[in-house]
Amino acid sequence: MGFETIFIGNESPFLEVLSDISRVSGIVCEPIRGTSKKVFGSSYQFAKERKIEIISPSSFLKKPRPTDIIVVSGFSKLIPGRVIKSSRVATINIHQSLLPAYKGRHPLNWAIIKGENFTGVTLHHLNKNFDEGNIILQKKVKISEKDNIMDIYWKTVIKGTELLCAFYKNAKRGNIGGFRQNQKLATYYPPRKPRDGKIDWNETAVNINNLVRALTYPYPGAYFYFQKKKWVIEEAQVFRNGPAGSRVGKPFFLRGACLVKTGSDFIKINRFRNKNLKDIKN
Length: 282
Description:
Elements lengths: L3 E5 L6 H7 L1 E6 L5 H7 L2 H8 L2 E3 L1 H6 L4 E7 L7 H4 L2 E9 L11 H7 L4 E8 L9 E8 L6 H24 L32 H10 L7 E5 L2 E11 L12 E3 L2 E5 L4 E7 L10
Parallel strand pairs: 1-2, 1-4, 2-3, 4-5
Antiparallel strand pairs: 5-6, 6-7, 8-9, 9-12, 10-11, 11-12
Helix pairs in contact: 6-8
């Protein structure tokens, strides 16, 4: 079935299409559990069910096995040169942004937080640095005002699947070239930690709502403390008009709506994670 492929990554959204368009002979991964397995899918489980060889990441990175194409997705470790050079056709990475913008971890979360109207997916060759190889193919994805992180994630998975199909088709014709990234346009954002989700109510309502949308389930969530409790907001919206004299950061109810004054306008809280709106007492 055409090219032999080895996949590197713990999550499995692209494995179905790779199995359809190539012969996946090995999956370099480790088991994942809990929420990540439920939401993003497990490469380890996929390999077991399809009877595909499971390869330890530590052993493969030290001593790679030759194959036609290596596809990397969501792998946090730097791929060494000996692995990159071991493929007969190409070693490529799927990055969920329009490189050279949003290099690094959690690019989709950051794109929403920064208020971007678009993001995308990039298929690129690997080199010695993270997210710096020549760009092969890209597709743009629109971020609407109501999209949360998982809406955007699945949009980019669909586009990423399309890019993989196009790449394998082009590779049969020997057309696997790419173009160099313009590093002057590069932006980089660091990995996010759960504590980064704490809401600063002095920010604008738009910025706070972007943070909420970027950190919905299964991510840790945008949160605040009130009445000695931690409240994680799962869904909110910008509310332009509220009573004058409202105190910034203090929830209150107005005609059944739970509102919070921010540095600019109000946030209407539609839903908490694991708590009811009525649990907040004025």
